[in-house]
Amino acid sequence: MPEHAILREVGLRDGIQMAARFLPTERKREWALRLKEAGLREIELTSFVPAKVVPQFADADALAAALPELSGVTASALVPNLKGAERALAAGFTHVNYVLSISEAHSRSNVRRSTDEAIAEFERIVALKRTQDGRGLVLGVGLATSFGCTLQGHVDPDRVFEVAAKVAEGGADELIVADTVGYGNPAQVKTLLPTILAIAGERRVVCHFHDTRGLGLANVAAALDAGVRAFDSSLAGLGGCPFAPGATGNINTEDAAFMLDSMGFATGIDIPALLALRRDVEGWLGDERYSGAIARAGLPKTYATAPRTAAAPALAS
Amino acid sequence: MPEHAILREVGLRDGIQMAARFLPTERKREWALRLKEAGLREIELTSFVPAKVVPQFADADALAAALPELSGVTASALVPNLKGAERALAAGFTHVNYVLSISEAHSRSNVRRSTDEAIAEFERIVALKRTQDGRGLVLGVGLATSFGCTLQGHVDPDRVFEVAAKVAEGGADELIVADTVGYGNPAQVKTLLPTILAIAGERRVVCHFHDTRGLGLANVAAALDAGVRAFDSSLAGLGGCPFAPGATGNINTEDAAFMLDSMGFATGIDIPALLALRRDVEGWLGDERYSGAIARAGLPKTYATAPRTAAAPALAS
């Protein structure tokens, strides 16, 4: 039996948060449903950041109406604070991801809070979660800038571990280790992740890599070696960071799925279906930065094209 | 002391062999000299393929006049056959790289020979080499399509090992394991390379990866794990393959140097100097496919910019 690896699609959140064009709710819904059809089983669907900060997410509540159609998919929402968590919960989300920055400079620029203040906000979300046990709210916590920061430069791994331990012990159900600005490298991944995995214990660890400097998939391979089996990725490699000019976005979903498949991991993902969706998304969004080697070069002749359900077979190599 | 890793620049050979524009000899010479200034210590300078097959290399003999200026650099030439090896030797090259395809289909398309016929030609080059012992001809042998083939699909690893053993025992000084069409993945690299390294024994193993499907640097990281310390790469990721439409070229030198540096390997390479060269090369070549994340996003703030020439590796092989 092949081992499973999970790609959590974040194109509808990280991918479009800086897009020039507002994507109508109906398009976002179609995007999510077609991800489901393509075999994706985890989608970060939207963000409950205030619409005046990111207008793209003005329809977060409306988009939540698609949740029943996404049964079988873990659809989560990013929440920047307690208020966002309350809104997500009210809208029907049972999975929320709260992000805090390890870098003080990034934390202050991004959410105008120190990292410790952001941890205090996390504790308020945990308190909310504890009032919701019957509904089973699952709380992921993103550790942004874990590999370095465009503003502050070096980020101390000990600080990453300290914050990871605080949120793991404090009530996080999942740790999302994020290379927000694409500073990480495979050696650093292999240094950081084993300790993070040990800190996380039974909690899942997700890696969130940006491909800003071309090392995104190399970092995925290194994280696989370290034992990580879940990754955030974005259709067409959409995304960017206001503090990383010239950056590409997240690692590309199609390319990451191809790599995982090729390496013998079962992803359940139908890459040709993703490529078809990608073409439509390009039409919807217009002029954005799209990346992706598979979209350009195609799948290899050796790639098995059998339908890939959740129990997709590993490739014979 | 940091461990050394070597990038052998193949932009002047693999990179421009399909370029639309003929690059004047003087530009090629400048390119090579500026690679030397940027700390590169191995350059594949040209190819002794007949000019009627690849017009770009019509000036291979003329370019050899730059060899004395490249002292301190191992400048090699690709040779497609015995005739090419004789020409390279006559022109003053002491390092030649002969490439044969593991895939029968690729071998026949590329050089109109079966793989066994290509091995026979290798043996004739070894015989030539043995008449040249005083001049110390170094013979690298490329094993093309070791990870798969766009024409034939799957390539049997046992055939790769068989040919590798034949050429290692038969007189090759170096094995260049090539993913000619970008079919390889990190798991495959980790499966194939340990056996290749064992077969190679004291001979150096170089990995030659194309980034066609985005896995180039992930494959480098996997090969580093396996113990490989030398890689072919191309400035601006130039290059392509007539049998891989939409392909990008070799792994990108600037990005590979950044990854190696970031991982703690000494490369001796001055990345900003490479980026300046790249800008000029883009002007010289015009409309080609240029890739590269560092060229787009820049080096991270955390990247040390101290002069790196002191770390230039001494050559073995």
From TrEMBL, chains A, B:
Belongs to the alpha-IPM synthase/homocitrate synthase family. One of its GO terms (molecular function) is hydroxymethylglutaryl-CoA lyase activity. Keywords: Lyase, Metal-binding, Transferase. The keyword Lyase applies. This is 3-hydroxy-3-methylglutaryl-CoA lyase. Residues 5-275 form the Pyruvate carboxyltransferase domain. It holds the Pfam family HMGL-like. Gene3D superfamilies: Aldolase class I (3.20.20.70). InterPro entries: AIPM/Hcit_synth_CS, Aldolase_TIM, HMGL, PYR_CT. The keyword Transferase applies. It comes from the Bacteria. GO terms for biological process: ketone body biosynthetic process; L-leucine catabolic process.
